[in-house]
Write the structure tokens for this entry.
Amino acid sequence: MAAHLSYGRVNLNVLREAVRRELREFLDKCAGSKAIVWDEYLTGPFGLIAQYSLLKEHEVEKMFTLKGSRLPAADVKNIIFFVRPRLELMDIIAENVLSEDRRGPARDFHILFVPRRSLLCEQRLKDLGVLGSFIHREEYSLDLIPFDGDLLSMESEGAFKECYLESDQTSLYHAAKGLMTLQALYGTIPQIYGKGECARQVANMMIRMKREFTGSQNSIFPVFDNLLLLDRNVDLLTPLATQLTYEGLIDEIYGIQNSYVKLPPEKFAPKKQGDAGKDLPTEAKKLQLNSAEELYAEIRDKNFNAVGSVLSKKAKVISAAFEERHNAKTVGEIKQFVSQLPHMQAARGSLANHTSIAELIKDVTTSEDFFDKLTVEQEFMSGIDTDKINSYIEDCIAQKHPLIKVLRLVCLQSVCNSGLKQKVLDYYKREILQTYGYEHILTLYNLEKAGLLKPQMGGRNNYPTIRKTLRLWMDDVNEQTFIGTLSGCLLQQKLIIKVSSTSGKIGLSPPQGWNIETLNFYVVQESHGHIVCVQWLCPSQRAAGTAALAAWLAQYRGGSPHTPRAPL
């Protein structure tokens, strides 16, 4: 059992065990020794619900990645393909099956589609002459995967593209199916709220599915009071802004995949005397990040500027705990200390890992380019110069920075301005195509079709109204109260709080605050918790202290924002 899945208000181990039980039942249908051939995309999600030990208990002896040509040799009776329903994968499977038939002896083949069977895929296998080779052709409903005590994911990276570019509603069906599974395990959700066309479609699918099972009443007392469905296109701002929490920056810089992150190994090499001349490790350091780790659970959602002080306090606590061994005099005291030793060693290892990660992140966040990029984002989100060609974006294109970085900034400017002036949009397009290649014409077309990049149509810019209504940025504030959290998801948080409050049940709280003395910027907050303003501080202002800063802010009203172009 994954203990961290039961830490939240809802015990998600119930869902995990239901998914594992379905997997075990399928494996038991294939009697005898087994080899699993994985669609590589599925290995990460499956690793969250079924470790190799579970598969080994059910006679799985070998595992291979799905590739063309012949499979590696394996003395097993059954070969099982775990794949997504993709036509291109069927061609590879057919090649594998035909090569195994020629090799001999005869094997039993099985295929498990995740999350749904596909008639098109089965027809492709039939056309290739291998459909009859499969004894079992079934589906495995892995719709919602428990990641942490408060997080489920479909791991459907292409869902937005499918819905808004390809008009394919398959992912919406999977979402509805997953929510119905959730209700079967945790009780019927009494109230459903939604915003957006896709949210309406998911809710309608759930209603239809419920009607299909009218004969079976769910007698489980509901664990969830409300379900809130939000379309991604209701808030296109959040995924474009830079995340500034500890976990968010790890994801921004290194990428978190299926709760694992791969990090440069040099910061994790053991430091011993005489090892200076030795070669550093070359293999990436792979760490799992979830709330099972006490320290990570504490710092994951904190603004990165607050993480250092937490790590420092934790180091002092651990050091003091180890020093207590000198005070152990009796056998009982020594025995008690020894019993706590594994936990203390694990805590020290966790502290060392997160200290190294913080150092890696700091190398990035203290760079001039990171500050310039963040400053431009703040200008756009506060409505400053959103209708002009931005000089920083020009510089990024000229220096051929990563295209994804340039596109995020351009799209952020477009979203905050309800579209770009035609001459500004044409300029950005021309510069991007001439610098990164004309093959990106389709990229720009898709961004326009998805609503992320568009020309102004002469209508009113809605963003200032949204910013005022949802109290994202405001001038009339209590200047004595400052917090330092800005995670790039303010609009989404406000939408959730707004919808929840209109229903009479506020389900989420605004982010928690941190000490102004530790920050390179501040966020002004009203006493009742709304985030309202962001402004950079130069070193002299930061050193002057909170009182001097408040006085400076009072004089500052009406002036243009301070925009540093160097690291603070």
Remarks:
- Residues 265 and 284 are 5 Å apart (CA to CA).
- The radius of gyration is 27 Å.
- Residues 474-546, 555-568 have pLDDT under 50 and may be disordered.
